[in-house]
Design brief:
The protein is an alpha+beta fold and 210 residues long. The protein is built from four helices and ten strands, in the order βαβαββββααββββ.
Amino acid sequence: MIKSFYVIDDFLQDPHQLRKLALAQEYPEYEETPQFPGRNSKYRQVINGLDKKISDIVGEPLVPTDGTSYAKFRIALEGDKGTSSVHIDNAHWTAILYLTLPEHCQDGTHFFRHIPTDTDRAPYFRHEYEKYGSTDAQELLDLTVNRDSNDPGKWEKIMTIPMRFNRMVVMRPQHWHDAGKSFGNSVENGRLVYLSFFNHASVGPSGTGQ
């Protein structure tokens, strides 16, 4: 049995404390159009005990993934642009904590079926590659998200996890997904989230072993 999604409401005892820290962060503009709409906080905000909590939820020992936006806030406002839409994350697990207040929440995280391959995710395991018509991870990505990310005709939206203040979504990020709608005109009323990315501890933070 494989579990792919966990949705936990009222995750933090005092989410307003974390939101206050998010509002005080700097969100630098990018010099070029980023891959995805929005901006990351300049600094990380590590939450004591969160890594262990997420490990307990998924039932696996986890470590933060190198080269990701681990422990950063992200704001995405109406009109923000990105070069890609549907994607996967380079990690074994992704954790998204929604910090937008209830009166401003809109939409949520979207999940898709890739119509040409009739798949809703990239392979979890090496033995799955054959059914995708590829034995090479890069080739598979080139035939799916790298080629079709911005072509809405190649994707069927199959599920949305709605945004809700203090809702934690923990997912296997190999599922074809996007961040949903960007909205608002400031950090106070925009799409505000706290992000974490994890690898299984046995492969280490870089995914290449320890």
